[in-house]
Amino acid sequence: MSPSADVRWLDVAAVDVVLSTRARRDLERLDPQTNQRVREALRRLGDEGYGDVVKLAGERDRYRLRIGDWRAEYQYGDPRAIRVIRVRHRREAYRD
Fold it and tell me: Distance between CA atoms of 67 and 10, rounded to whole angstroms?
């Protein structure tokens, strides 16, 4: 069976993207262009399930989304929501 244009091989339902208070503050501190890029990447992750995502080593249920030099750390709050914990520059993202 060959794939056709109207068949979706991976059905990704949209999920809500929820920002923690800390992630919201992180976003507010970014310059407008970077802020927009990060928001678009988070929206794309929630809507399409698309992004440069890696499960964080040593963490049970945490993931990171790479957006250029920026990293958004998140976890699945429930099956229908992604909870963004932090948004940091890559030089700071893996500290703590």
Answer: 23
CATH number of 16-93: 3.30.2310.20
The DSSP-derived string for 25-93 is: HHHHTS-HHHHHHHHHHHHHHHHH--SEEEEPTT-SSEEEEEETTEEEEEEEEETTEEEEEEEEEHHHH
For the chain, the structural domain boundaries read 16-93
* H or E element, residue 18: strand 16-19
Tens-digit pLDDT string for the chain (96 aa) = 444 444 333 445 688 899 999 999 999 999 999 999 999 999 999 988 889 999 998 888 899 999 999 999 999 878 788 999 999 999 888 776
